[in-house]
Design brief:
The structure is a single chain. The chain has about 375 residues and is an alpha/beta fold. The protein has a domain of about 130 residues: Thiolase/Chalcone synthase (Peroxisomal Thiolase, Chain A, domain 1, 3-Layer(aba) Sandwich). It is built from 13 helices and eleven strands. It has a nine-stranded mixed sheet with strand order 3-2-4-7-1-8-11-10-9. It has a two-stranded antiparallel ribbon with strand order 5-6. Helix 3 packs across helix 13 and helix 6 crosses helix 11. The radius of gyration is 19 Å and the shape is globular. It starts with a strand and ends with a strand.
């Protein structure tokens, strides 16, 4: 990658099911927090990028009243209607173009204002799939889950172990929406069945939340920060529409990961990565993510979770923060994965901190059945 881009500041909200503050207050809090950590003021910002979505916010031009709380007034400003991890990619490209030195990326969603599952049908083919009236993001995930589980003999217990692991980790994360200390596999398996085999505790909650990061050129990063985290590699890929895809595998994520690994010169994930923060909106999806990221062979995600290799004390911990199963303010979820990885690298993850973290993977996604994916390899000072 030509030039180097670093993350020098971050902030995230305390994600909740019904945030007791306005969207504007929530955004102001994280934008201000990230800027303060980076040691900058609004005047230092060269560009501001917001990740939000009109459909998810339930109103048009949804960022209209967010420009000033983000500090974007009279600044170069862009809106990205995807996951915040994609907005960060755009900010990184702006910096690498040589036109900007410092970028603020802010992502936010208030699921309590407008149920995201109600509008997921608008992602479907309007002439057929939408007209059926039974397809949405959750029912499509159920179809994918059952196809995957049947093909590779993955049990419901193995899927439930993912929830057990992630929700157990989230119990120590003060930012998590769903915190369930002492959760048992029986609680997961007995939770409400939504669409077979998707249960309430094997899918992410509807969350309110916001997140922000400050990016900087190498020169600015070294001037402003004693502990920058570098973007060593990145890859993104958008897969085909659900009817034209192989739903047994996350091929788009596999392509994105290969590009990120190549850029960061990663050849052995287990030897060269200390942890991964992934956006698993469904527990079964994390097993598919393992395979797409090359952590195991195709169809062996269940075997990997059985081995406990991805637990906090395993060989390659995945989602020590609790992941998306613990909080999912949709357009912020991927950027939260980045922040959680950065916190681990900087040794600032509190009760969730793992020892000796130098390099981490962060993953964001958007679309039905993880249609679009982005992968970052992040590293600290060696």
């Amino acid at each position: 990658m030509r030039g180097k881009v670093a993350i020098i500041g971050y902030a995230q909200s305390y994600h909740q099911g019904n945030m007791p503050m306005t969207r504007e207050d929530m955004v102001f809090e994280v934008a201000k927090g990230a800027a303060e950590m980076a040691g900058i003021t609004r005047e230092d910002l060269d560009t501001v990028i917001n990740a939000s979505n009109d459909y998810l916010d339930g109103r048009t031009i949804s960022e209209l009243f967010l420009v000033m709380p983000m500090g974007a007034y009279l600044r170069d400003y862009t809106k990205v209607e995807m996951d915040g991890a994609f907005a960060m990619f755009y900010g990184m490209l702006k910096i690498l173009s040589g036109t900007h030195d410092i970028a603020l990326i802010v992502a936010n969603t208030q699921g309590s204002t407008f149920n995201p599952h109600q509008i997921s049908t608008y992602m479907l083919d309007p002439t057929f799939d939408r007209q059926i009236g039974v397809l949405n993001d959750v029912s499509m995930a159920a179809i994918q889950a059952r196809m995957y589980m049947n093909k590779y003999s993955v049990s419901e217990d193995e899927v439930a172990i993912v929830s057990l692991k992630n929700l157990g980790n989230a119990a120590k994360n003060p930012h998590a929406h769903r915190r369930m200390p002492g959760i048992t596999i029986e609680e997961v398996l007995n939770s409400k069945l939504l669409y077979d085999p998707i249960r309430e505790l094997t899918m992410s909650p509807i969350s309110d939340g916001a997140c922000a990061v400050v990016l900087a050129t190498e020169k600015k990063a070294r001037e402003l920060s004693d502990n920058p985290v570098w973007i060593e590699g990145v890859g993104s890929s958008q897969d085909s529409y659900i009817r034209n895809r192989n739903l047994y595998h996350l091929e788009g994520l596999e392509k994105a990961a290969k590009r990120a690994y190549q850029m960061a010169d990663i050849k052995n994930q287990f030897a060269e990565l200390d942890l991964a923060e992934v956006s698993e909106r469904y527990a079964y999806e994390e097993l598919m993510i393992y395979e797409a990221l090359g952590f195991c062979e195709k169809g062996k995600g269940g075997t990997l979770i059985d081995s406990c290799a991805t637990f906090k004390d395993g060989q390659l911990p995945v989602n020590p923060s609790g992941g998306a199963l613990s909080a999912d303010p949709i357009t912020a979820t991927g950027l939260i994965r980045v922040v959680e990885a950065v916190m681990q690298i900087r040794g600032e993850a509190g009760a969730c901190q793992l020892p000796g973290v130098w390099r981490a993977l962060a993953h964001g996604q958007t679309g039905v059945c993880a249609q679009s994916n982005i992968v970052y390899i992040l590293g600290g000072e060696y």
